[in-house]
Amino acid sequence: MAVFPEISGNDVNGLGEETPRPVRMIYWAPNPPDIPHGDLQMYFYGQSAKVPAFAEARAKRQEVLDAPLPAVAPEIVQNSPEGWTNSLTQFIESGDCELAGVAEVRGDWIMEGHEITQSRVIVLGVVHDYGEISQAPDPAAGLEVMAQYGRAAAAAKTVAGWLREQGWDAEPITGPMSGALLMIPAALSAGFGELGKHGSIINPTYGSSFRLSAVLTNAPFAPTPAVDAGIDGFCASCKICEDACPPEAIFQEKQMVRGKSKWYVNFDKCLPFFNQTHGCAICIAVCPWSRPGVGPNLAAKLARRAERLENEG
Ligand code: SF4
Ligand code: SF4
Prior knowledge:
Strand content: 5-15%
Number of helices: 13
Number of domains: 1
Strand order of the largest sheet: 1-2-6-3
Number of strands: 8
Bound molecules: iron/sulfur cluster
């Protein structure tokens, strides 16, 4: 708490603001001194560096990040938009990632003061080992998150490398330092799921038990459709994450954030516990959608209920 800045993280995020405005970087800045909460980010690094397994996982991810990308080939391979998008299944089949989708880049997904010139974002998702993540907030869960961020980075570099070999420039974006791009709205638009009360995406199959990375490109991929599986309504009548969050950071109701009503987590309450526990993740682990095999059954039940209500007029 000694390094907490005077400004509230909720003010940086635009909690209570009625007018849309660009997003300001709140955490995971590529250069922590650039942001008001940078000292807290540095504290997180300092704490995790004391645990050898975290230092090893971070070094392993850095190796992935430092590996050079292939040069952009001089010959440009052409394909239909659907052909490009369908070809992403090869990365799921090969085990690089479990989820892949595409969205056209929107201005409101770009951090204030940054620029994105590419027209498309390919979003990739890698799923946690539930046995590890369910140990949250023990360090085993934080280590699993770091391991999957490493895997997500590798997947983004593989996809970007593949595109570059086909003559299309491509820039891998790896979490959590995603720089200019807000990955959650991009992933929502690309059909990864719906925003949950705990502020993370809920996918109908994998719940919230996954991490993201992305690739920016001008290759003309066809966007994949957003998903409406009734999850938003489910969250309205579920309190599991709210009750499980030790610092009570999860709001019961949607909040107005930069002109949009949405589920929101109180940054100032979450962050101290998050830092203290090397990444917490309790809300992700306790969400019923995250339990293996549960999501598809819940989604099927919600679909049956929606159909019944529609038939009843
Ligand atoms: S635990 Fe319940 S309320 Fe929280 S995100 Fe999951 S489904 Fe929504
Ligand atoms: S990460 Fe932990 S502290 Fe933060 S909202 Fe989730 S359960 Fe609460």
